[in-house]
Structures are given as structure tokens and as C-alpha cells.
Design a protein that fits this description.
Oligomer: single chain
Strand content: 15-25%
Distance between the termini: 50 Å
CATH class of the largest domain: Alpha Beta
Number of helices: 15
Low-confidence stretches: none
Number of strands: 9
CATH architecture of the largest domain: Alpha-Beta Complex
Order of helices and strands: EHEHEHEEHEEHHHEHHEHHHHHH
CATH superfamily of the largest domain: Spore Coat Polysaccharide Biosynthesis Protein SpsA, Chain A
Shape: globular
CATH topology of the largest domain: Spore Coat Polysaccharide Biosynthesis Protein SpsA, Chain A
Largest sheet: 9 strands, mixed
Radius of gyration: 21 Å
Helix content: 40-55%
């Protein structure tokens, strides 16, 4: 079973050497490394070229003539991968030595899974532990983990994406479903959502296999949010944002129908669950352009059918919609 690593870079000179060293020092080396540089203007390409000379496994490098953004850059890297298993790598992280070996064992031991994702240790720019792991920062609780393992992975993902690309690996056959990546999603959530709706199982790996570096220049990061952080983030979402969230979910449905026209009853049931989330966001958009009895009635119906609990932040979202009104 061949393993491809898709590593994307952009002005990564500060930390890239650490990541490349951790990949080359894996107990099970990858069969190939695909590096996509997104038009870096620092020493990133110089570091890549130096690494490629001494690397013991094949390295393919492509350089975008213009900046595409991380999602489209990863899309191009995945297209170039030839392995049976594709694993993502971020330029600023560090892999623990047995990461690929454990990933390989997992996919061999569980032939029915389509993707896997691990936990990670949160560290600062100097790789010092921040005293928490990735799943804790995401709020991926033991209960949600058991739900995920117990056949409710779609329900978990519709509540929030708990699959982080830096820890994710997936079987190459999923490329037919997930490519091209949506511009409205981060690639990790897009892959996990599409796979889950068509019934392809994902497997969480509780072990931390990555040092997930937190620093000021990264595009996305994780940290333990306080209650007030969550409240403030909730209040910043506008009515228009709810419409965009609904459109993003509709894009998932359109891709599923286009690539899997003969859906079985179970798959239709998952589509219906996705449509509940779409309708929930559309109603939350309506709430913030309405008032009086219609506003209260819409909120009450969403409470009655437990849509706030299933797709939003429960009572926090209910309170937001009751007492705060955001227009476009």
C-alpha cells in the first residue's frame, strides 16, 4: 500500500525545515512527496530544492505562477499523488516519527474505512507544549468520539467539523468524489462531509501524531476558546453569513447527486439530514430579517425540532436569535 504526502507551502521559510526533517525521519518513509508552492517570495523554494537533492524518496515539486490559496493548492497536490493513501502535511507542523507507520497500520487493519484523522499536540512557535491537544481545543469530547465510532459520524460533522487536514489521510479512490475541492470549504471538512454522506466510514485516531504549531503567521489555528470567545464569534455572524453557510451545504448535496445519481435509501436519509441543516441556516437568515410573531414562531419551531442542538450552538444560538438582530 503506497503512501503519498501532499505538502503545500507559502512563504514558509521559518518552519519548513522542521517539517521536512520530520517527514524524512519517519519510521515508515512515504513512497512519494508532492510539494506545491503557492508563489512564495521568501526562501521557501531554496529550502525545498536543497531538501530534494538529498531526499531518499521521490519528491515532485510544482510552483504556482500566481497565488491560488491553500485549498486550491492542496487540490493540485492531491491530483498529482499516485499513492493508495494520501496524507496532508502543513508546512509549519512537525510529525512524530511513527505517524506514517501508524497511519499505514490503521488502513490495513480497517479495510472498510475511507479516511482517518488523528489527534495532535498543540505547541508554540518554539515547539513547546501549550498543555492541550487538538481535540480538546475543538471541543471534540469523549461522547462525540463515541458517537463518531458508533455510526453517527455525519451527525457529529453536521454539528462541527472535527477533522483537521494536518492530521488527515484518505484512500485515493475518494479523489473521484471530492475533486475539485469546493472554494467554499476547507478541504478537510469537504472530504469528510462528502465521504460521510455516501456512507464511507472515517476513523478517529486518539493518539497525537503531529506537533501542531501555533504561531502568529499561520492561516488557521486552534486554541481553547473561552465562553466569551464563543459568544463574540456567534454575535459576529450576520444574516448574510447564514445564507453562505446554507449555500456551502447545498454545494455538498449537488456534488453527491452529480457523482452518485443512484442513491440508496440510506444515502437519501443522510441527504435529508443535510437538508435539515440547510433549512436551519436559511431560517436563521430569515429570523434576522423578520420581527414580532414570525420571528418568535420560527425560533420556536427550530427549538421544537432540536435543530439548534443538532446544527448550531444550542441555547447560545437560541439566545442570540432571540435578543440580537443582524441584517445584511
Amino acid at each position: 500500500m503506497k503512501i503519498s504526502v501532499a505538502l503545500c507551502t507559502y512563504n514558509g521559510e521559518s518552519f519548513l525545515k522542521d517539517q521536512l526533517s520530520s517527514i524524512i525521519n519517519q519510521s515508515l518513509p512515504p513512497d512519494e512527496l508532492i510539494i506545491g508552492d503557492d508563489h512564495s517570495t521568501d526562501r521557501t523554494n531554496e529550502i525545498i530544492d536543497s531538501f530534494k537533492i538529498s531526499c531518499p524518496f521521490p519528491v515532485t515539486v510544482y510552483r504556482n505562477p500566481v497565488n491560488l490559496g491553500s485549498t486550491k493548492n492542496f487540490e493540485k497536490a492531491v491530483q498529482l499523488c499516485h499513492g493508495d493513501i494520501i496524507t496532508f502535511a502543513d508546512q509549519d507542523d512537525v510529525w512524530k516519527p511513527q505517524k506514517l507507520e501508524i497511519i499505514s497500520r490503521v488502513f490495513i487493519a480497517y479495510p472498510n474505512i475511507g479516511y482517518a484523522f488523528s489527534n495532535a499536540e498543540l505547541v508554540d512557535a518554539e515547539l513547546k507544549s501549550l498543555g492541550m491537544n487538538l481535540w480538546e481545543s475543538l471541543g471534540f469530547t469523549d461522547k462525540e468520539l463515541q458517537d463518531y465510532l458508533g455510526g453517527r459520524q455525519l451527525e457529529v460533522l453536521l454539528k462541527q467539523n472535527v477533522v483537521t487536514g494536518a492530521t488527515m489521510a484518505f484512500r485515493a479512490f475518494l479523489k473521484d468524489l471530492v475533486l475539485p475541492f469546493s472554494g467554499n470549504w476547507i478541504h478537510d471538512g469537504w472530504i469528510a462531509m462528502l465521504a460521510s454522506i455516501v456512507g464511507i466510514q472515517g476513523l478517529p485516531i486518539p493518539e497525537s501524531l503531529v506537533l501542531y504549531r501555533q504561531h502568529s503567521k499561520q492561516q488557521l489555528g486552534e486554541y481553547r476558546q473561552s465562553y466569551w470567545d464563543i459568544v463574540n464569534n456567534s454575535l459576529r455572524i450576520s444574516a448574510d453569513d447564514f445564507g453562505k453557510l446554507a449555500s456551502a451545504c447545498q454545494e455538498v448535496e449537488e456534488r453527491i447527486i452529480a457523482r452518485h445519481p443512484g442513491l440508496n435509501p440510506t444515502q437519501y436519509g443522510r441527504i435529508e439530514l443535510l437538508e435539515r441543516k440547510i433549512n436551519h441556516f436559511l431560517k436563521r437568515k430569515l429570523i434576522h430579517s423578520s420581527s414580532g410573531f414570525l420571528r418568535f414562531k420560527t425560533i420556536l419551531n427550530e427549538v421544537k425540532f432540536r435543530n439548534y442542538q443538532s446544527f448550531s450552538c444550542g441555547w447560545l444560538s437560541i439566545g442570540r436569535d432571540l435578543f440580537f438582530k443582524h441584517r445584511y
